[in-house]
Amino acid sequence: MGTHYLINADGTRYGIMTVPNVYQYKGFTFESHFYLGPLKLKKDCNPASRMGRKFFKAFAEWDKLTPEEKSKTQING
User: For the chain, what is the domain count?
Assistant: First the structure.
């Protein structure tokens, strides 16, 4: 998850916003959460109703990538 802090001109923090890490790999768009696992997304970034074997095969390959290789597949960062 990416965390962004909203700060006033005087340096006072007035909000925190977190956004999920979203990736594209082998034609799939998905979130990857350290505790909950992967979530396949549709083109409009809403959760897909089904994930399927092809998605989980691609995710298993992606999960074996190094952190540097994974960061190259991140689309929000």
Answer: 1
* Structural domain harbouring 42: 20-73
- What confidence score (pLDDT) does residue 26 get? 97
Contact between 22 and 7 (Cβ < 8 Å): no
Residue 36 domain-assigned (yes or no): yes
Q: Which of 70, 24, 26, 31 is nearest to 48 (CA)?
A: 31
How far apart are alpha carbons 24 and 8 in whole angstroms?
34
pLDDT band at 3 (very low <50, low <70, confident <90, very high): confident
pTM for the predicted model, two decimal places? 0.76
